[in-house]
Q: What sequence folds into this?
């Protein structure tokens, strides 16, 4: 389609912001999306050297108005190197938070791409509950970016999404955490990182209990809500393997730590956690 035809169409069919619902005109010139995904090989290395704000802008400007897109907040220091929670202090260095000092964690470290604020919460909600699975492409790229920047290539043998219970999977029709990493083998291959045979195992963990959403529970309730909720797929051998658990959001970290507990008790070498967004509600430094 010619550029003139595209701008003509955008006058009559402007994009609707996924966060606030405002209509806005989207100039393809201001974004490489969706051409980025048609030319991933050409653009991947370029994107991996952008900062998080620029990457978010480039891949989300077809979905968000100019006001909402500036609300994105990247995860940045000072933060807890264990659970990845960020601190509101300035001129401070990274340090363990109170929670990580006082409670045992089975995972080695957790990290995320962006802060779970109003805009990111709405986007993830559209992705999980409103069937907007095309957001898996930019979201998967954000997750891959965080993986790349944390230099996790040598610390990972198996990449595993947090599973849904079979009932929830049937209702929703997809596991959003798996969609985030589904294209990773292709991205790893472009970076020539496939020699080590990273494997993505979408059924490494099995969710035994259809747990209720963690969002409205307090810390104690969250812990008991996910207790013994997972088991290892008996067909998978994880002995001595370095495992990366991926999910959309990390809030209290109870779900992720329960997954890590099962993996470590079954002799995994280490478990790291990677999520798209990090809640900052429970800051304690
Ligand atoms: Zn908006
Ligand atoms: Zn911490």
A:
């Amino acid at each position: 389609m010619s550029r003139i035809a595209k701008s003509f169409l955008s006058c009559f069919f402007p994009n609707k912001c996924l966060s606030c619902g405002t209509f806005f005109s989207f100039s393809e010139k201001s974004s490489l999306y969706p051409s980025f995904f048609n030319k991933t090989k050409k653009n991947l290395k370029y994107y991996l050297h952008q900062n998080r704000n620029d990457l978010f802008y480039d891949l989300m400007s077809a979905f968000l108005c100019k006001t909402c897109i500036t609300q994105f907040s990247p995860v940045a220091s000072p933060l807890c190197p264990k659970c990845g929670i960020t601190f509101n202090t300035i001129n401070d260095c990274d340090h363990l938070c109170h929670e990580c000092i006082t409670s045992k964690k089975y995972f080695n470290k957790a990290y995320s791409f962006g802060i779970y604020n109003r805009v990111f919460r709405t986007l993830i909600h559209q992705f999980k509950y409103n069937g907007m699975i095309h957001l898996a492409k930019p979201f998967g790229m954000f997750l891959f970016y965080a993986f790349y920047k944390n230099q996790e290539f040598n610390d990972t043998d198996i990449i595993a999404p947090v599973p849904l219970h079979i009932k929830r999977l049937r209702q929703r029709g997809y596991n959003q955490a798996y969609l985030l990493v589904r294209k990773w083998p292709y991205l790893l291959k472009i970076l020539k990182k496939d020699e080590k045979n990273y494997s993505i195992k979408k059924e490494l963990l099995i969710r035994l209990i259809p747990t209720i959403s963690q969002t409205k529970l307090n810390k104690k309730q969250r812990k008991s809500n996910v207790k013994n909720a997972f088991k290892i797929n008996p067909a998978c051998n994880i002995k001595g393997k370095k495992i990366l658990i991926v999910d959309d959001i990390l809030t209290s970290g109870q779900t992720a730590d329960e997954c890590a507990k099962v993996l470590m008790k079954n002799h995994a070498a280490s478990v790291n956690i990677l999520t798209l967004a990090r809640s900052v509600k429970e800051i304690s430094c």
